[in-house]
Write a structure and sequence with these properties.
Strand content of chain B: over 45%
Helix content of chain A: under 10%
Number of helices of chain B: 0
Structural class of chain B: mainly beta
Largest sheet of chain A: 6 strands, mixed
Shape of chain B: globular
Order of helices and strands of chain B: EEEEEEEEEEE
Helix content of chain B: under 10%
Oligomer: heterodimer
Radius of gyration of chain A: 14 Å
Distance between the termini of chain B: 36 Å
Distance between the termini of chain A: 41 Å
Number of strands of chain A: 11
């Protein structure tokens, strides 16, 4: 059975702290890994990772994939209260066509206090 | 402008009733997905479709049904066989090699 596991499940920090969120996976036919931020309703896209060891950055957020050890991390530096959200990791599995199944982890609830 | 639209935003259902949640996209995406989210939890896959007139069960398909008669539309029916349907439902679509785009969700409550 395909599994995507995120840790920690919840995290409380103060503004200015740096956080590292983890996503590990045990799946057949891995294609890519996606990170999303969910504040209220619709998750918003952060990163797509397909190759090991190549860091993706966007402002204070960065992410990297390790396909040998089957995990990814999402780093947020100098956290702000606006970073408070649920962070979701998803794995795209190669299917019979070009699209495949998209399986999510449980999410990490991040709370940033002023 | 392009996007993915779910309706209604809020839905109330009496026990024993079937209800249908709408999901429409104008992004010209082939793949569409339905997820269920319970409070404090991640997204669990109900059904997905990679092409018109074809769909596959996800991890929690029991009590749900879907159709994909048009590329733009992927409605989800929550049947009376679904024992605990109260949840937040999210629809997503994806193009080749792209991330998934989400609708704003439908919150279903059984009364």
């Amino acid at each position: 059975e395909d599994k995507v596991v995120q840790s920690p499940l919840s995290l409380v920090v103060h503004e200015g702290d740096t956080v590292t969120l983890n996503c590990s996976y045990e799946v057949t036919n891995f294609r890519s890994l996606l990170w999303y931020k969910q504040e209220k309703k619709a998750p918003t896209f952060l990163f797509m990772l397909t190759s090991s060891g190549i860091e993706k950055k966007s402002g204070r957020l960065s992410s990297i994939l390790d396909k040998k050890e089957l995990f990814s991390i999402l780093n947020i530096t100098a956290t702000q209260t606006g970073d408070s959200a649920v962070y979701l990791c998803a794995v795209v599995l190669a299917g019979g066509t070009s699209y495949g199944k998209l399986t999510f982890g449980q999410g990490t609830i991040l709370t940033v206090h002023p | 402008d392009g996007g993915i639209t779910q309706s209604p935003k809020y839905l109330f259902r009496k026990e024993g009733q079937n209800v249908t949640l709408s999901c429409e996209q104008n992004l010209n995406h082939d793949a569409m997905y339905w997820y269920r989210q319970d409070p404090g939890q991640g997204l669990r896959l109900i059904y997905y479709s990679q092409i018109v007139n074809d769909f596959q069960k996800g991890d929690i398909a029991e009590g749900y049904s879907v159709s994909r008669e048009k590329k733009e539309s992927f409605p989800l029916t929550v049947t009376s066989a679904q024992k605990n349907p109260t949840a937040f439902y999210l629809c997503a679509s994806r193009g080749l090699g792209t991330e998934a785009f989400f609708g704003q969700g439908t919150r279903l409550t059984v009364v």
